[in-house]
Amino acid sequence: MKTRFAVIAASLVLFALMAVASFAGGSGDFAAGSAEDASLDEGDLTPAGILPAPEPLPGERTAVFAGGCFWCVEEAFEKVPGVRDAVSGFAGGTFANPTYNRVLAGGTGHIEVVQVYYDPDVVTYEELLYVFWRNIDPIDEGGQFCDRGEPYRTAIFYRTADERSAALRSKEELEASGRFQQPVVTQIRPLDVLGIDGHSGFWPAEEYHQGYYLRNPVRYRFYKEACGRDRRLVQLWGAEAGAPDYS
User: What whole-number distance in Å separates Cα of residue 197 and Cα of residue 200?
Assistant: First the structure.
């Protein structure tokens, strides 16, 4: 299964040229010399552990979206006014506390998601749905952009009847718009809790995935460009790609 780490590794020569330039100029992306930045091999990216999902602040709500690579979805939502945080993780699946490598191996049923923490007095759930659609390829059933396979499929996970209704309505409006000739394949799914009392159904990913676009900006930009995400979004959404009016 092709992953974002494979995309980075496949362009090692260009990355090496960037690294030389960064070292010469003292760029913080590489000068820090962390173990994670020292290698492109996924196996060398040792997780710092999985922390519990943070609790919402008073008055906040949460929403869970699957849009392919959670690094990119996290970035998209954290630019939205009224969103305090977006945490990368997993939803769905057949067991609790999945790890990234286990999900990547396949067969678990988990999907990469972000849990968005937002202030409903500033941004509504319907507005978050608008942002979500314009940051995904809703007609791709096999993954998203260069990331292929079940963990990268798109979905909206709902917790309440109101969220379900809003998600279904937004999908129906998109289908009726005639924007796409192919069917919209994004799933609208309940956030299953696997029968675990008191659990939200969202499982955070390892700490090294959180805020990846901020911690490793050069590597992240390189991955995103190589993956073709922005180019495909412009093909699909034109000027609305990425929902710039919410950035």
Answer: 9
Cα distance between residue 17 and residue 25, in whole Å:
13
Active site residues: 69
Cβ-based neighbours of 180, under 8 Å, separated by 6 or more: 138, 139, 174, 236
Is the pLDDT at 11 greater than 80, yes or no?
A: no
The token duo for 93 is: 């699946």
Q: Check residue 53 and give its pLDDT.
A: 87
Which residues make Cβ contacts (< 8 Å) with residue 35, sequence separation at least 6? Answer: 44, 46
pTM for the full predicted model: 0.82
pLDDT of residue 29: 39
Tell me if residue 232 falls in helix, strand or coil: helix
In sequence order, the 6+-apart residues with CB closer than 8 A to the CB of 131 are 76, 77, 80, 243, 246
Give the whole-angstrom CA distance, residue 19 versus residue 120.
Answer: 42
Q: Which of 139, 113, 145, 141 is nearest to 231 (CA)?
A: 145
DSSP 25-59: HT-HHHHT--TTTT---GGG------PPPPPPPTT
Q: List pLDDT tens digits, range 42-88.
A: 333 333 478 888 999 999 999 999 999 999 999 999 999 999 999 99
Q: Is the CB of residue 57 less than 8 Å from the CB of residue 167?
A: no
Q: What is the C-alpha separation between 166 and 213, in angstroms, rounded? A: 29
**Structural domains of the chain in order of their starting residue, each with its CATH number:** 48-215 (3.30.1060.10)
Phi and psi at residue 63, to the nearest 5°: -145, 145
